Amino acid sequence: MRHIAVIGSGPAGFYTAEAALKTFGSEVKVDLIDRLPVPYGLIRSGVAPDHQSIKAVTRRYENTASDEQVRFFGNVTVGQDVTVEELRGLYDAVVVCTGAPADKRLGVPGDDLPGVIGSAAFVGWYNGHPDFAGLHPPLDGETVAVIGNGNVALDVARILAKTPEEFAGSDIVGHALEALRLSNVRRIIVCGRRGPHQIAMTPKELGELGRLTRAAPLIDPAAFPPLEADDALEPGHRKAVTLLRGFASAGTSDKPVTIDFRFFSSPVAVLGTDRVEGIRLEHTALDGDGRAHGDGHTADIPCSMVVSCIGYRSITIDGLPYDDKAGHFANEEGRIGGIGSGLYCAGWARRGPTGTIGTNRPDGFQIVEEMAKDLPDAQGRQGGDGLARLLAERAVNAVSFDDWRRIEEAENLHARNGSPREKFVDLAEMIAAARPA
How far is 95 from 200, CA to CA, in rounded Å? Predict the structure, then answer.
């Protein structure tokens, strides 16, 4: 029997477990290990709460979780409760699928001021991630600057702009819904250092901005190249740019909230003394290679909060080599330490935060394929039984899939017709729900 440990129970972790079951059949047992008592990673705490159709992918993961050859060790922190070396001694292979949960810094003066928030933290706040439940973002000012030209920036802008009624059927957490209801934000500036042709936004997410109850997008038509330049774009990208052109041609709106797109604008400083008071943007231009360069012309815009949506990094784990420049674990084609080490990584932990959720599936299958070449035979390891004994000796309160289902049942119990599902945001409450008296 092969024993495989997967560190992380998000999309990459579940796809890797699925691949192992399909590759090795009845001759494998897979243990998913997560520092939180709840699985699904990015799906639970990263996908926007009003995008429930995307979160439906967890039904597929539930099929894997229901397999008797798969176990869950939640509330277990690798590097603290158990080391990588100990896992290597217990398992034939260890796969790191921890994603990229840490924010990249803006890297400009003032980026450490209170009120500068990374998108991982802000998204975690409104999604109920225990690490960010106490964030208290400053929503007392009228203007928020959102830095980035991808879908995460759109999610942040949309969440800030919605009315409480527009969250019906979502699973936004109560503390965020109440804070947004009391928000004074009336202007959301979405800043990108390049232009509309270089966005990483998709038509679906852009289209949602045109259907908001109290908010409307605003774009300067001068930001666009000539219309015929759109012909060279890939169809999906061209559709997204067409939506932007439509927003620009609509001009100003009488709706009370404005989502103001500022293309060719790069932050060079966050302004303020004890908290964010504004942001300094430098106008940029593209060179022949499509790279943006500042032209020295700046503008200071008052704002009370800056949300940075410029990318993510994996969190380091003791005992694993890390590529600090790339922001993920050092690896060669998913192998950590070369052939025969028994260490692998998949998903964002392997390649950085690129692609969609589904992109992680072929990644997981490829890693298991390489694993089958490297480790053709089982090595008589203890696997999950050995890990369970080790954790019990250390009084680590590990959570199983059955425990998680009780947590989920308790969360759904709070939901009323049309109201958001009430997630637990406190680890102690999660454990209590998992093991009711």
Answer: 29
Reported as a single tens digit per residue, the pLDDT across 108-118 is 999 999 999 99
CA distances for 431 relative to 58, 95, 426, angstroms:
21, 26, 9
Secondary structure (3-state) at 122: helix
DSSP code of 113?
A: S
Q: How many CA atoms lie within 13 A of 99 on its CB side?
A: 27
- As a whole number of angstroms, the distance between CA 180 and CA 164 comes to 8
> To 10 degrees, the CA torsion angle through 87, 89, 91, 96?
40
Stated pTM of the model: 0.93
Q: Which residues pair with 144 in a beta bridge?
A: 188, 305
Distinct helix (H) and strand (E) counts, the chain: 15, 18
Q: Which amino acid is at 28?
A: V
The CA distance from 34 to 130, in Å, is 14
- Cβ proximity of 261 and 199 under 8 Å: no
Buried b / exposed e over 328-358, threshold 16 CB at 10 Å, is bbebeebbbeeeeebbbbbbbbbbbbeeebe
pLDDT tens track for 271-290: 999 999 999 999 999 998 88
Residues with Cβ within 8 Å of 71's Cβ and at least 6 positions away in sequence, in order, are: 29, 30, 31, 32, 384, 400, 401
Please identify every stretch of the chain with a pLDDT value under 70, giving residue numbers as ranges.
414-421, 437
Check residue 354 and give its pLDDT: 86
CA distance 227 to 229: 5
